[in-house]
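Subject — a protein and its fold
Encoding — discrete vocabulary of local shapes:
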Amino acid sequence: MDQLTESGTWEIDGEQIRTIRKQAGVFTFNLVKALLQTGYYSADHPLAKAAAADIFSQFREVSRKTFDVTYVLVSTVDERGVMIDGLTPDPIEVARVFRGVMGDHFVAKFHEHFVRNRIAAFTIKRNINETEFEKFMGIWVSWAALSASGKVSSADQMSDQLNREGLLSVTVLGMDDIPGARRHLPWSVKVA
């Protein structure tokens, strides 16, 4: 039963959670696939535009009852350490929505992308329109190619590029922006 709670979130049952997890898996799989296919097509190529449109429609479907979708790196050591937050009451482990050998490969590549670019989290807001999403996908794919070649490696640089392009519906938070990302903090500071 779809009901809006007092906190502004949707009340969802187990079947809806399974559906959302499946949709999140399809969307994330295609987002990661776009990372892995860097260099095949330019952002202006018709096939790249069609792929971006498909991914956008998947995003709209999976984010139908939320304000945004956030990917969070929870571990730099464990390749399974990327979570999807904002879709269900509890975060969704990316590794759990992918199955099999190909899924493990995609999870590892997604994790590697976060670590290499020092991304702690990135969020795509529901209010992004298709033109902005297409522009985001162009940056996402070109950024993956640049970081794989070692030409760039900073979440701050990616965030700056998104801002220069006027893409305020996508935010990137770097590991350097998180207290304790580079050094161990006492437990009392972490709790505060």
Remarks:
- The chain has a mean pLDDT of 80.
- The longest strand covers residues 119-125.
- Residues 5 and 11 are 6 Å apart (CA to CA).
